[in-house]
Amino acid sequence: MFSLQRSFLLLRRDLLVSIKTLLSSFCALVIMAAILMILGCISIPGQSMITDDFNSFYMYFTVATVVLVGVLAFRSYDKPYNRSLSILLPLSNEEKFLTNFILSFLIIPILVFVALFIGMEIGHLVNYLRFEEYHFLYKESFYSFSKYDSYLQVYLLLSFSFLGAIIFKKNKLIKTWAIVFGAFFLLLLGSVFYIYFNFPNIIGEELIIPDKLQIIVDILCHIIFFLCLVGTYLKLRKERS
Question: How far is CA 221 from CA 211, 224, 225, in A?
Fold first, then answer.
């Protein structure tokens, strides 16, 4: 029988096991974000030029969360001995799935968001001491993640790492994204050939995506996200059988 209490007890255990990795990742992200913000601020005569915080924050956040989810999700299934212990735990598949889902789609994104926010604000503070111009990041960062498209894109990428974490045992992050990039490349190549042979007149012109097509793409993203979660759950059930 499913128990929410057991799920949170397992989550606490997984957090304690991964606490060193989480803390070291947090500190590394703070330092990295601060350095990148400092290096991204270029002095020019009479003024300073600061990099686009929205794009920088969004890119760092996406890459960091995808990597950490690929490393930490289903970590207890990496080695045969730990895998055996995890399978023998008196927990249902639903409880194990929920635990890793909360870790991957809630705790890790919040951790990365806070680390990058602190690091980039430190970088801006240093730039203020250098150029006497301070730019508050929170306006861009919180606004960007209030947009629905941001959530959809990031969580779709996270679902790939989430699925790969339970499928592959070694080098799971590399294998997962090699497959994802390979599939994306083939899809892009097929799309280019399709447009070239069916709409040759638009080659070289600016491609405007219709609103209806954008809606279809969003629906497909939702379907892929759902299929990744279902695939992860089915693979988790298979591990126990």
Answer: 15, 5, 6
Please state the pTM of the whole predicted model. 0.79
Question: Quick one: 1 exposed, middle or buried, by C-beta within 10 A (0-12, 13-18, 19+)?
Answer: exposed
Query: What is the enclosing helix (H) or strand (E) of 5?
Result: helix 4-17
What is the C-alpha to C-alpha distance for residues 197 and 157, in angstroms, rounded to an integer? 31
The pLDDT tens digits of the residues spanning 5-58 come to 888 888 888 888 888 989 999 999 999 888 887 776 544 444 444 444 556 677
Nearest CA-CA partner of 50 in 128, 141, 144, 143? 128
Contact criterion met (CB below 8 Å) for 40 and 56: yes
